[in-house]
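User: Could you write out the 3D structure of this protein bound to adenosine-5'-diphosphate? I've included everything you need below.
Assistant: Certainly. Input first, then the structure.
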Amino acid sequence: MANPRFEAQLARFFYRPDEDVGAWLELAPEIAEAGEVAEELPEEFLAFELGAEVYAVPIGAVREILKVPAITGVPRVAEHVLGVMNVRGEMLPVYDLKQRLRLVDAPQRVTGPTDLPRESRVVLLKDPEGDAGILVDRVQGVVRLPLSKLEPAPNLGADRRAVAGLGRAGGNLYILLDVEAALA
Amino acid sequence: MEPFKVLIVEDSRATREMLAAAVDLAGGVEVYTAVSGFEALKVLPRHRFALIITDINMPDINGLELINFVKKNPNYRHVPLFVVTTEGRSQDRERGLQLGASEYLVKPFESETLTALVQRYLKR
Amino acid sequence: MAPPRALSEFVAEANEVLETLAHDVAVLDAQRGREPEPDLLNAIFRAAHSLKGLSGMFGQERISTLAHHLEDVLDALRLGKVLASDALLDAILDGVDVLTLMLREASGEAPSDETARRATALTETFVRLASGGQQTAVDVLDEVGLDPAIRSVFTEYEEHRLRENVKKGIALWKVRAVFSLDDFDQRLAGLNATLKPLGEVISTLPSSQPGDETSIAFDLIFGSPRPQHEIETAVQTMASVQPLTNKPVRPRLVSEPEPDAPRTRPAPRPPVFASDVSSPELTPLSSSSPSGVMQGAEPSLRSLAQTVRVDIARLDGLMNVIGELLTVRANIHRLADVARQAGATPLPKLWGQELQKEARALERKLDELQAGVLDVRMVPLGQVFDKLARLMRRLVRQSGKDVHFEVSGGDVELDKLIVEELSDPLMHLLRNALDHGVETPDRRIAQGKDARGLIRLKAQQLGNQVQIEVGDDGAGMDEGRIKQVAIERGLVTRELTDELERRDLLNLVFLPGFSTRKDVSELSGRGVGLDVVKTNLARLSGLIDIDSRRGEGTTFVLTLPLTLAIIRALIVGVADRTFAVPLNSVTEIVAVKPAELRTIERREVLEVRGQTLPFVRLSRIFGLQELPVERHFVVVIGLAQERLGLAVDALLGQEDIVTKPLGGRLKGVPGIAGATELGDRRAVLVLDVAALVEELKRPQAAVG
Ligand SMILES: Nc1ncnc2c1ncn2[C@@H]1O[C@H](COP(=O)(O)OP(=O)(O)O)[C@@H](O)[C@H]1O
């Protein structure tokens, strides 16, 4: 069966349309994105507020922005895990970043939108370890941060490891979140 | 030009598809497959086949019986018939050829062999 | 090499063929000592043959070569050239094993020298065994004057079957039937089924005489000792019957067949089989196998082409969709209810009633859909039973004990995932039965027992559950020794054992590190013990119970849910939270007043019908608020052999749920199996009962 023509033919025969699931379609833009990333550095970030501070994560790391759904508390997990939410049938954890980053003293108890101000949102982040939502006080929108002007994180002590760096645009300061560290 | 219709009778799924691929490669053909002798008996009257390729060892009727049926039936007896089988047993092979099979291919064989044979028999 | 897709196609089909082969070989093995069923032998031969051809076409030479030698042996066997000796059957069993290993290697597993070595040795054995053939001197078929034209379409095997019939003095008939082209296959199957009790259908020939466009004639070559009129009566108007041969078949042995023994083999014939292990009354393995290999009119591999293989993950996907639909259904019901009740004016009220009706119709269809998808996941237990039977027979032979191994219920179906997980635990229990249960023949005789022991593997479906029993008629378990060992190993204190009932004493064998054997035998004592069996079962939400009588034997009873995908759950409230408890691990629900609780060593217990159970508050183990209650609802959990009372604040109802894992980062939360959604889309946590029971057994855990 060395004949490549034959091989192609075989591949065609063994091809089953039912195997052709949407996964490829979904993957495609990502692959394209990844390709671009190499040449054109990422500069779009989603900016959101946690208390009085403004944080940002690369747009590529955001899966979607949700209105605060019902959140079910999970026993026996770290305090900064608010619980799980149901995103169209998928059960995903929601993290309380303010607690995690020690922006507040006491953990807040959140079971759903009624416990929070109207502008609150859950930002669903993509992550290889499992996607997860973070509760934010307000989403500001997309900002362009010139990569060349990003600053390294100032040394604020060993426990401030969730800050990846700082960015400035239009006179505002954005704290770049190290997603992996923040969710750990 | 109408494509030649070729019927493949073979109960193994993977082998059937492989044979179909090899036949298809001959060009100008339309491949029909049957998973058993019975199914072959059902499709035979519905199409004018230019070539039949059958396995010997099948669950319902054996390939020899199918050859006999085809070769004794005035409606089909002109249709060339290849036996494609793992049956190396010489007695069965002789019988197959006696009954009127045109070619007897013993598996495994190179799929190019089948492609070439199909082209030879279906030359326009 | 074939392209990857073709390779996976090959592996899939080869796997199916091997499964069929393994199943049939197991049946053959169970019939050791009897003359093998011709249909069965032929089916096995055909499977080996298919495998040879298939693997040859896909360039899998190793498999093809071994299958080829196996086929040769089987061919000689079905043609009556060699005897079904023990050595031969063992080699065939081994062949199936090695082929399975080679297929795994073909599909990417690292090749092992051991497999290669076994294959080489087997090839030699096969060659040696197949060459033992002898040729029949006079061809009896010539003697009976068979029409050469008919004879020319027979394969060698069909000729052999003809010969066998002639040799026995069984007359040959030509049964002719004309059927419509549309449904001749069903009609033929019907005719076959009618003829089968009267004799053997040797061949089915489509008649070469052209009929009209819409019909087709068949000649069935049929061997039967019955008189013509009897066959004619049986087939009625379906077909006509004529003698096939122009000379009468001379019966060589006069023996009147018994009325209900179709293929009676006259006793005085020299046996074509060699026997030394089994007796003829052995029951065939799972004779009611769903594939119909044994009882169907056509032993056939045809189903191979008519099945669709589906990745189990896709079924899980479908299951999730159904789970979501169940939620939608619940919502519609709720809306309908609201509309009906809030209907101050007639219109919404009527509308609500209509909606309610439609919702019920939806519900019925959903139930069907759910049952349908569940059904697709179901596979017969026979798949593991066959494998176990093969291993067991080998172990029995090695053990030097005389054991009759009986298998039944292979047709009982279970979720594929469960079936796959069952083989190790069952094997362990079977090994134990052979190793610890059944005594040596001498000892059995000394005790007035039959020298031959019995080990039984039996499955049956009981409602939504399947019960599997592994039983032996051996020595039974010695609770005195068990107690002693448990104390020696420091697994329990003497004081504690004094309080234990016999039943609980027996349950000590489920503790990790328990083994009463002093010398570690080859068969068992390999580290995996009954504790692992229990853990595995608990993972499948199964129960395990021991029934053991001294001197009479031991039976382990496993109770399993039919499926794990959609489960019925009890919805409970604790503090302000809601949890789902899988009902298949709930044995009962009771209400107790706080005053009825007792403590033992400061741990709370309660009594349920004479049994004392640990009492555990879910609120406490999950660190939730403990509400003062007038009475506790206690959900009694039964898992493996553990029982436990789990106290909750409220019982909210039952639901069909699909458990989903908590997103990657939370998957390891102890005591939580996942989450599901109920009517309002809120996630509800599903308890991992097995893990809870396990953790509560640990000494310090009970306080939470
Ligand atoms: N079928 C049986 N009949 C009698 N005793 C048994 C049987 N099965 C298990 N036992 C007892 O239970 C003990 C624990 O079994 P197991 O955990 O499998 O360990 P092992 O087989 O290594 O001893 C055995 O040592 C034996 O005493």
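Residues 1-40 of chain A have pLDDT under 50 and may be disordered.
User: Perfect, thank you.
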